[in-house]
Amino acid sequence: MIHDKLPQIWYGADYNPDQWPEETWAEDMRLMRLAHVNVATLPVFSWALLQPAEDRYEFAWLDRILGLLADNGVYACLATSTAAQPAWLSLRFPDVLPTGWDGLKRRHGGRVNFCPSSPNYRRYSSALAEELALRYQDHPTLVAWHIANEYGNHCYCELCAEGFRQWLKERHGSLDALNEAWNNNFWSHRFYAWQEIEPPMAIGERGNSPMLLDYDRFQNQAILECYLGEYRAIKAITPEVAITTNFMSQFKPLNYAAWAPYLDVVSFDSYPRPDLPMSDVAFNHEQMRGLKDGQPFMLMEQTPSQTNWMPRNPLKRPGVMRLQSYQAVAHGADTVMFFQWRRARGGPEKMHGAIVDHVGHEHTRVFQEVQELGAELESLGDTLLDSRQEARVALLFDWENWWAIDYSSGPSADLNYIGLCKRYYHALWQANIAVDVVRPEAHLEGYDLVLAPMLYMVRPGVADHLKTYVRQGGSLLVSFLSGLVDENDMATLEGYPGELRELLGIWVEEFDPLLKEETRGVVMREPWGRLQGDYRAGVLCDLLHLEGAVARATFGESFYAGRPALTVNEYGQGKALYVAADVEDAMLRDLLLTLCDERDIAPALEVPDGVEVTQRIKEGRGYTFVLNHSGEEQTLRLPKGCRDLLSGQALEGEVRLAAHDVWILEGLPA
Ligand code: GLA
Ligand code: ZN
Q1: Residue 144 covered by a domain
Q2: Which of 567, 558, 557, 560 lies closest to 525 in space, CA to CA?
Q3: Which among 73, 168, 267, 301 is least buried, having the fewest CB atoms inside 10 angstroms?
Q4: What pairing do the DSSP bridges indicate for beta strands 650-657 and 39-42?
C-alpha cells in the first residue's frame, strides 16, 4: 500500500542537508543517483531551522532541497522534525520541559526531551506537522510521512500528575474501585481524594506495581496523543499518504502493540550489536511484522557500517550490511534504509557510520557496498513487494506482561521475559521454522502451534481466547510463571495458573526459584518424539499437581524429585502443554520440534547450521531467502528447478553459498 508511487524496495537514508553548506547538495544528488538511492528521509531534526520563532516558519531551504530531490528522481519520506524542539519553545513555555524519574525538572537540550502532556508541545508540534502537510501535500517527492523520531520519554511533572489522575478516573471510575484494583490497604496506601495520587518516582512511590503499570499505560497514551495530534493534522490534508513513526523493536517505555493500529505502516530502526545472535535480530523483525498482522514493515534505519553509541563500535564486515539488509527483507521489510546519508561533521554522531564518509566521495568500501546493494535491489523491481510470510507457529509477546514481570518484587531476579521469548524463538529459528510474534489477543485460528512463554499476566478475555484456540484443535505451550496475575498485577485466588488452570489441567502449588548457577534435572518418563533422556533446567521450578494433564517429564532432584516438569492436557480437539521450569535450550529444541513434527511443520529447505531460511509468498509463488550467517562457505543441496532471483542463475543439486552471501530462490513450493 505504501508503494503506489514508488513500486520498488525503497532504498535510502536519513538525510540532513541542513547540516551542510548548500554547495554539498548537488554532490549529494550525484552520489544518491550513483548509490541507487530512491528515498531520503528528511528533515528529521530541523524544527529549530523550520521555525526560527513562534510566528515564523522558514521553508525556503526545504523547498530547494526537495526540488533537487525531485529533479534527481529521489522521493521523500517527509519527516515532521518534532523530536527535538527549538530552545525558544522550551524557554518560552516551561511546560514543554519534562521532569525525570528522579523528580528533577529537565533543562533544554538533547532530543526527545519534552513532556508528552505539555499543551504547548502538542500544539506547536501538530502545527508544524500541519504546515508541512499544507506546503508539501502535492509535492512530487512525497511518498510517506515520518512523525517525530523514536518516541519514548516518560515524564513525571505536575501536568503529567494531573493527566494521570484524569486517566485513572476514566479507567477505574471511582476511587473505591482504584483502591480495590491497586490493593491499596497494603502499606496504608488508601486514597481519599484524587489529588492525593502522585506519579511513581524515585523520590516517592517506586515499587507499587499496579500503580507503575497504570503509569506506564498512561504515559504510553500521552505520548501516543502527541503522535496522534500530528497524525490527524497530516491525515486531514494527505489522506492517501502513509504515515509512520520509527519504532525500536523491544523498547520498554512504549507498548507498540497499542500504537500499531494508528500507524499506516510500521517502521523500525535496527542496530543489532555485533555479538547479538542472528536469531535475536530475526526476532526483532518478526515482532515488528507481527504488529500489523503480517503487513510488510519499513526498515527505517540501520547503519551501513558502525554505530557510535556502543562502548565499542566495530565495522560491519564486508558483505554483512547486505546480508542484514536481506535478512530484514526476508522477514517482511519492504524498505532498506539507513542512518544516515552523510556522516555528521560535528556533534555526538560524528563517529556514526554513514553512506558518505567524512572524506566525501564514493571511493570507499562502504559506499561501494551500498551502491552494489542499491543496484541489486533496484533490479528486483516490485517482485517482492507486499509478499507475506505464512507461519504456522505463533509466539505470544505482550508489553504489559513484560512490564509486570519486571515490576514484580520476586520471585527471582533471573526472570527475563524477553530473553525467554528469544530462546523459544531461537529453538525454531535454528530449524528454519517460520514463527509469527503476535499479541495474545491476535487471531490464532491459522496457527497449528502457539507458544506462550511466561504469560504471567492474563488480561480479561485472553484465557477464553486461548481455550477457544485449543478447543478447536490448536496446540498451546505455556511456560512456568504463567497465569499468576490479572491486568493490575493482582494475584489469582483460583490457584495458579489461575484462568489457565482448567485448560492446562494442572495446579501449581508452589514455585521454587533456584540460586544462581543452580539447576535441576528434568527426566523424560519415556521418549517422546525427539525428546529423550535427561535435561537440565534453571531459574525456577514449579511444584504442580495434575488435574487431568499427563506428565511427560519429571524433576530429577530435590524434594520435588518425581513431580511433573512437562505436562500435556488434551482439551477439546487440541492440547495444552505446560513446561514447569526454565529448561535448557536442548530440551526446548527437542520439545518444540517434536510439536512441529506432530503437525508436519517443516522448513522450506534443509540447510546446514548457520544458514537461515525464510519464505515470502506472493500470488501463490514462494520466494525462499537463504542467508549465510555462518561466516564460512556452505554447501547446500537444492531440488530441481531453483533459480536465484539475485544472480539470475539456475541452481540445483549440490551448490555452494559463499560466506555472508544470499539467495532468493524461486521454484520451491510456497
Ligand atoms: C536512532 C535515531 C537516529 C540516530 C541513530 C544512531 O535510531 O533515530 O537519529 O541517532 O539512532 O544510531
Ligand atoms: Zn510531564
Answers
A1: no
A2: 567
A3: 73
A4: unpaired
Judged by its nearest atom, the ligand closest to the C-alpha of residue 119 is: 2
Q: What CA–CA distance (Å, rounded) separates 581 from 509?
A: 14
List, as ranges, residues with CB under 5 A of the ion ligand 2: 115, 117, 155, 157, 159-160
Residues identified as active-site: 150, 301
Residues 398 and 492 placed together within one structural domain of the fold: yes
Q: How many domains does the chain have?
A: 2
Rounded to 5°, the CA angle 414-419-425 comes to 145
- Three-state secondary structure along 365-421? HHHHHHHHHHHHHHHCCCCCCCCECCCCEEEECCHHHHHHHHHCCCCCCCCCHHHHH
* Whether residue 615 sits in one domain with residue 585: no
Classify residue 541: in a domain, yes or no. Answer: yes
For the CA of 100, the nearest ligand:
2
**For position 141, what pLDDT does the model report?**
98
CATH number for the domain harbouring residue 650: 2.60.40.1180
307 C-alpha to ligand 2 centroid (Å): 31
Phi and psi at residue 589, to the nearest 5°: -60, -50
pLDDT at 655: 98
Residue 239 burial (10 A CB sphere; 0-12, 13-18, 19+): exposed
Burial 464-475 (b: 16+ CB within 10 A, else e): eebbebbeeebb
**Residue 635, domain extent:** 611-666
- pTM beyond cutoff 0.90: yes
Judgement on whether residues 563 and 627 belong to the same structural domain of the protein: no
Q: Enumerate residue ranges in the chain where pLDDT < 70.
A: 1
Question: Which CATH number fits the domain that encloses residue 415?
Answer: 3.40.50.880
Within a domain: residue 166? no
Ligand 1: residues within 6 Å at CB?
149-150, 269, 271, 301, 307, 339, 349, 352
Quick one: 525 and 423 in the same domain? yes
Per-position DSSP letters for 139-154, written without gaps between them? -TTEEEEE-SSS----
Residue 423 lies in a domain: yes
Cβ within 8 Å of residue 545, ≥6 positions away: 506, 507, 508, 509
CA of 118 to the centre of ligand 2 (A): 6
The verdict on 406 and 517 lying in the same domain is: yes
Q: Ligand 1 centre and the CA of 5: distance in Å?
A: 27
Give the model's pLDDT for residue 2: 83
Distances (CA, A) of 624 to 142, 194, 289, 605, 665: 32, 57, 17, 8, 5
Beta strand ranges found along 192-240 (DSSP E): none
Question: From atom 12 of ligand 1, which residue's Cα is the shortest distance away?
Answer: 307
pLDDT tens by residue, 545-602: 999 999 999 999 999 999 999 999 999 999 999 999 999 999 999 999 999 999 999 9
Which of 42, 81, 246, 269, when mutated, tests ligand 1's pocket best, judged by the most ligand atoms within 8 Å of its CB?
269
Q: Among 541, 564, 598, where does a domain finish?
A: 598
In the reported structure, the alpha carbon of residue 201 is separated from the centroid of ligand 2 by a whole-number distance in angstroms of: 12
Boundary residue ending a domain (541, 570, 598): 598
- Are 660 and 319 spatial neighbours (Cβ–Cβ below 8 Å)? yes
User: Which atom of ligand 1 is nearest to 44's Cα?
Assistant: 9
566 and 494 fall within a common domain: yes
Mark whether 638 and 584 lie in a shared domain: no
